[in-house]
Amino acid sequence: MTSQREAWALEVTDLAGSDPRVVVLDGDLGTSTKANSFATTHPEQFFQMGIAEQNMVGTAAGMASVGAVPWVATFGVFLTQRSLDQIRMLVSQTGANVKFVGHYTGLLNGGAGKTHQDIEDLAILRAMPDMTVIAPGDAAETREAVRWATAHDGPVYLRLARDAVAELGLSEPPRPDHLAQLREGTDLTVLSTGVQTARTAAALDLLAERGIHARHLHAAFLKPLSDATVLEAVGDAREIVTVEEHSVVGGLGGLVAEAVAGAGRGSRVTRIGLEDTWSESAPNDFLLDRFGLSPERVAARIESLGALPAGAVH
Asked: Structure pTM?
């Protein structure tokens, strides 16, 4: 399996080979983000900015103003927390053509603990006007998202995880305002995003063995993702579940709940994620179990909702 950070580095390196406008700005984390491989291949298009994330964003905005296509690479928490003012004022409000890649997002970042675990980034940047937000599910989708983001004119945030992830085998590249269907089912509808989609798929395998058959939708684009698209995708499902390696506040769960409530539907929306609490430092498997995101815990949570055998909720 390939990690998303490796996939990002491979794709941006390939793109830079044919487009000298593509540059990478690194916040002294090239070994962790794999930006060092880009630096080796394209040293003239690589800029080591040091531990100065706010300045890095400002520099990228300036470079974009003269025609460059800058990728700003660092840990997600340093982008969405430390340099948020610069992202808001210099990039989002101006529409600068800057691409942010947030590495080591979510819970599983090598045991660095809650100071480095970014579980609020989707909520923060989804609320920012003119910001595109993408959370690909695997390495292949990451490469597709990098290509899309580089070609797109405007600010983009790409959310990536640290470790290698299972491939989803998606049949089409991600696109804005779209949900990809991974599984058919009539008992309930489940939506997931990012690398949590693979774990959710494994959870639904477990439920299928128990006679509960869910429809599974994957959201690579968290923004734009319109209410109309969400409502069309969930159809007349009365039981809707969202799953994300993120706070239940403001991410995919919030997005879906807003759409369903705004339409006045009687569906129940259950949000699975971190329940408005800080994370903690521990091994990956422990954290996934602790916060209810392992396949077994997701399956148990869905089963506890009282979903019945096929067709019962429609």
From this structure: 0.94
